[in-house]
Design brief:
The complex is a heterodimer of chains A (255) and B (668).
Chain A: H1 2-21, E1 33-39, E2 45-50, E3 57-64, E4 75-82, E5 87-88, E6 92-98, E7 103-110, E8 118-125, E9 128-134, E10 144-148, E11 154-159, E12 168-178, E13 192-199, E14 210-216, E15 219-226, E16 231-240, E17 243-254
Antiparallel strand pairs in A: 1-2, 2-3, 3-7, 4-5, 4-8, 6-7, 8-9, 10-11, 11-12, 12-15, 13-16, 14-15, 16-17
Chain B: H1 2-13, E1 29-32, E2 36-38, E3 45-50, H2 57-61, E4 67-70, E5 78-81, E6 90-93, E7 96-97, E8 118-125, E9 138-144, E10 154-164, E11 169-179, E12 183-194, E13 210-224, E14 227-241, E15 249-265, E16 271-288, E17 300-320, E18 323-343, E19 350-372, E20 377-392, H3 395-402, E21 411-425, E22 430-441, H4 445-449, E23 451-455, E24 460-463, E25 471-483, E26 487-506, E27 519-542, E28 546-559, E29 572-581, E30 584-593, H5 601-604, E31 612-625, E32 628-637, E33 659-667
């Protein structure tokens, strides 16, 4: 009886695996959320995708071009917030070609939601720039913050997407950028970041956290030990060459 | 001699042997009726039989010398031996491994078994052939009832009820035995409930209530002339149990305990007895704070836990001339899962594993032998080797602790123990004995992997330590007994030299998780600790009309820095006079405990406890009514309504004030 059962399970596994090989190669944008598209003067389509509907914070942006463009194309991305009385850009991470998906992967830090005005993304392919308006919803927790430093500069601190946190040690990636002008937010390396996770509703922290350290490209990598699920706050203190720049920054995580 | 008596027990003759004098080296047999009768004291274990099924397991344990009970209220007292407890002693049900599911130790194994399920309780004072393996301080084995066979079809039974005025405590029970030549069946059930009791200050103690029921079924089938199969099932279910010493109560505590035992007994053969058991038990436990007043509850939380154990053992006894040899192989797997969900008033619920899916696989091989070396000297000796693997069985569990508990969480252990126990019969009236043992025990899964478990006694959140070394102990004890027809005196002293003693020490820089905690402690190995003390018992009998018994225990413990160890009971004495006049018994009793001032407040969070003397009185009669036998017992406990507590009572929760009780039982 048992052998028959095992046999049946084995057979069904074979059928299942046979079935899978008949599928077409996966569409790389199948599980992505489409933000919009535009036409180049050549008639080629440029399409923008995100992982899910956009929220304010660090958001990955995927750029799809016809395969003929290849990996060497000169692609740029930038953002603009039009608040009526004023306009400004926000930090972004330049596109990099992903061989496996054939997509260009970039990131934009939306520093506020579309409640404050209207967001546009600019994609530059070669010498041509397309404008794609997008809507950014309010993030359920604060995953990006803009802080004025002690030397009167403005810094944007953004947390990488908050999906997949678990109880235990978790990798934490922060992107730190500085506002040089309303239209220019270059990333900053070499800052010292001290991170103290806190369980907000209970007022306790957790042991064995690792402060994020600069790994280039404005990215800081550390580890947070979440001892339970719930509302966690990452309290952040930023300093440079011994001078405290910001000591009241925080980002919130909920899982 | 010993094995003849033990065989007698296993043959189901226990109830006929109620007054048997059992002389053993290692096993102390105490039979319990309405009264505890001590029949032997020169060994380092003790057997208690309950025929009065009305007394609770806690009540029976409370009368045994050397048994210390950690109390968290009026229910589920946690038995220890001489002040050692938890992982230092092993608590089993009929040799089966079973572990409580509660992270706050609300459900010691003894809370899942009732005297109505039991044949006897075997208490081992240190490592011996009854309690070998994973302990340094002996343990308690609750032996389950054995259905018997009879040449003619027979149905026997009993039923009874009892009531106690203080706390409105009520119980009702019944048991039925059926037997014929091939089959024996036993069914038993008991229900107990109590409201809050009043302390000696006439104040109701909130959250001292409980409700529970328990049922047992045993079926024994004779497979051949010399073998049988015994299927046993126990279900125990408590609901709405208050724990006044703790922050939470219990919504439910359920246990299912099932075993199948195959017995072979070949009288007069060298290969005398083979007992093989397979077993399974599952405990489902849920803490509850919804009945507590809102101002006491910092944040509502749910804390359920489960414990699942599967195991087997095989016992083989050889009888070769004057040598009796027993080998035992046993193994089990235990899995514990405990979790906590906290519900803040604003914000999302918070979830964590407090015992992050932890598992232990354990196997041991034990051999022991006893022999009469000469007319005056007999010797029992034995040893055990054990192996164990401990770890976490889910990815979620591993991920939970990986950031907090450093090091490799999976571990393999090997432990061993052995003992030597010579006995010298100086004269027919006097016996002296020695016992030396070297034993070790594994850290418990809570001590290895516990994740912020709040310990009420010292007020710290506890973290496990996967790198703990095994705790070991060199135990010596010596004693003697003098017995004539009317007088029996016995005393024994002991000293345990413990190494790598496991205790919590403050972990600086760690944030507590429990609102009222003082901080975080982690289990560590202390280089050494010492436990010493004695038990002494005396009995004077005049005819059958008057009997005086005195049971005394004392323990003293300190760690390597001379800090007093926690939960060490002070000197305690139970002195009882039984007078029988015109078939009615009158039993005045005094329970005395000395002041315990040897405490460590800074390290273990204890404060001194005053002495007390509590007076009790009972009167009883049993008589025949047609074919039936009727027992009546009535009395009063804590006659002078003293406000008192035991040193081993967590948070110094006061005991029950004056209480009148009445019990009746009919047997047919």
């Amino acid at each position: 009886m048992k052998h028959i059962l095992y046999g049946l399970i084995g057979l069904s596994l074979i059928f299942a695996s046979c079935g899978k090989t008949k599928f077409e190669p996966e569409n790389p944008t199948q599980n992505l959320h489409k933000l919009g598209q535009g036409l180049l003067s050549t008639g080629d389509t440029v399409a923008l995708f995100s992982e899910e509907a956009l929220i304010n914070g660090y958001q990955k942006i995927f750029i799809q071009l016809p395969a003929t463009y290849g990996s060497s194309s000169n692609i740029k991305i930038s953002s603009l917030m039009d608040m009526g009385t004023m306009k400004h850009s926000s930090p972004s991470v330049p596109p990099i070609y992903n061989n496996q998906s054939g997509l260009f992967e970039a990131a934009v830090v939306f520093t506020m939601s579309s409640n404050a005005g209207s967001w546009q993304l600019f994609v530059t392919v070669g010498s041509e720039t397309l404008t794609i308006p997008v809507t950014v919803a309010e993030s359920p927790t604060k995953i990006v913050g803009t802080y004025t430093s002690t030397d009167n500069e403005r810094y944007v601190i953004a947390l990488y997407p908050t999906k997949g946190f678990k109880v235990g040690l978790n990798d934490i990636y922060l992107l730190i950028s500085k506002r040089e002008s309303m239209m220019n937010f270059p990333t900053v390396d070499g800052l010292k970041v001290e991170m103290t996770p806190e369980m907000v509703s209970m007022g306790h922290g957790s042991p064995n956290n690792i402060d994020p350290v600069s790994i280039g490209g404005g990215v800081y990598k550390g580890k947070a030990n979440f001892t339970m699920t719930g509302d966690w706050r990452l309290n952040l203190k930023i300093s440079s060459e011994g001078n405290i720049l910001i000591d009241n920054a925080y980002l919130d995580i909920l899982f | 001699m010993k094995h003849k008596i033990l065989t007698g027990l296993i043959g189901g003759l226990a109830f006929l042997n109620v007054h048997a004098q059992i002389d053993t080296i290692e096993i102390k047999n105490v039979w319990l009726k309405e009264i505890v009768i001590q029949t032997d004291t020169h060994s380092n274990s003790k057997e208690v039989l309950s025929s009065n099924k009305q007394k609770s397991t806690d009540g029976v344990l409370n009368t045994i010398p050397g048994v210390s009970l950690i109390k968290r209220g009026g229910y589920a007292w946690e038995p220890g031996i001489r002040g050692l407890n938890f992982g230092q002693v092993q608590t089993t049900i009929d040799g089966m491994a079973i572990f409580g599911a509660c992270t706050d130790r609300m459900d010691p194994v003894s809370s899942y078994i009732e005297p109505s399920n039991m044949r006897s309780i075997v208490v081992s004072y240190g490592t011996n052939e009854e309690a070998s393996g994973n302990n340094i301080g002996g343990g308690v084995n609750f032996k389950i009832r054995q259905p018997s066979f009879s040449s003619k079809k027979q149905i026997k039974g009993n039923a009874g009820t009892g009531y106690e005025s203080n706390g409105n405590a009520f119980n009702i029970f019944s048991a039925v035995d059926y037997s014929n030549k091939r089959i024996g069946v036993n069914v038993n059930a008991i229900y107990r409930s109590a409201d809050n009791y009043k302390t000696g200050q006439n104040k109701a103690l909130p959250f001292s209530q409980y409700t529970k029921w328990n049922t047992g079924l045993g079926i024994k089938y004779k497979t051949t002339e010399h073998s049988n199969l015994h299927l046993n099932y126990i279900h125990d279910e408590g609901r709405n149990i208050g724990y006044p010493a703790l922050l939470m109560d219990v919504l439910f505590a359920k246990a299912d305990i099932v075993s199948l035992t195959h017995n072979i007994h070949l009288p007069d053969k060298a290969l005398n007895k083979i007992e093989t058991k397979v077993y399974y038990n599952f405990i489902d436990h849920a803490m509850d704070d919804t009945r507590r007043p809102a101002e006491e509850v910092f944040m509502h939380m749910d804390m359920p836990g489960t414990s699942e154990t599967i195991g087997l053992y095989s016992n083989i006894t050889w009888q070769i001339d004057k040598i009796s040899l027993t080998t035992k192989f046993s193994g089990y797997q235990n899995r514990l899962h405990s979790e906590m969900t906290m519900y803040p008033e604003d914000g999302t619920p918070m979830f964590m594993l407090t015992l992050p899916d932890v598992q232990r696989r354990y196997a041991e091989m034990n051999i022991s032998a006893s022999a009469d070396l000469s007319e005056k000297i007999s010797l029992t000796a034995g040893g055990t080797i054990s192996t164990s693997s401990s770890g976490l069985f889910t990815e979620e569990g591993k991920h939970t602790i990986q950031g907090t508990l450093q090091g490799d969480t999976k571990r393999l252990d090997a432990i061993y123990s052995f003992f030597v126990n010579p006995t010298f019969n100086l004269s027919p009236k006097a016996v002296v004995f020695l016992n030396g043992a070297l034993s070790s025990r594994l850290p418990t899964l809570q001590e290895l992997y516990g994740f912020y478990l709040f310990n009420r006694p010292d007020g710290y959140d506890y973290l496990g330590n996967p790198d703990l070394k095994k705790e070991s102990s060199f135990n010596i004890s010596a004693g003697g007994r003098y017995r004539t027809g009317s007088v029996s005196l016995s005393a024994k002293g002991f000293a345990y030299f413990m190494m790598n003693y496991i205790a919590g020490r403050v972990l600086p820089g760690y944030d507590k998780m429990t609102e009222i905690a003082f901080g975080v402690k982690q289990y560590q190995n202390l280089p050494s600790a010492l436990l010493t003390g004695f038990e002494a018992e005396g009995e004077v009998k005049i005819n059958n009309a008057l009997r005086f018994t005195s049971t005394n225990s004392f323990s003293y413990g300190k760690d390597f820095e001379k800090n007093a160890l926690p939960f060490i009971p002070p000197f305690r004495s139970i002195d009882k006079l039984e007078v029988v006049w015109k078939d009615v018994s009158f039993t005045p009793e005094v329970v005395f405990a000395a002041r315990q001032s040897h405490v460590s407040n800074t390290i273990y969070g204890e404060t001194a406890s005053p002495s007390y003397a509590v007076f009790n009185f009972s009167t009883g009669k049993d008589f025949a009514l047609k074919q039936n036998r009727i027992y009546l017992l009535a009395g009063v406990t804590n006659i002078f309504n003293l406000d008192y507590y035991d040193h081993t009572s967590v948070m110094k929760i006061p005991e029950r004030g004056r209480s009148f009780f009445i019990q009746t039982k009919i047997q047919w």
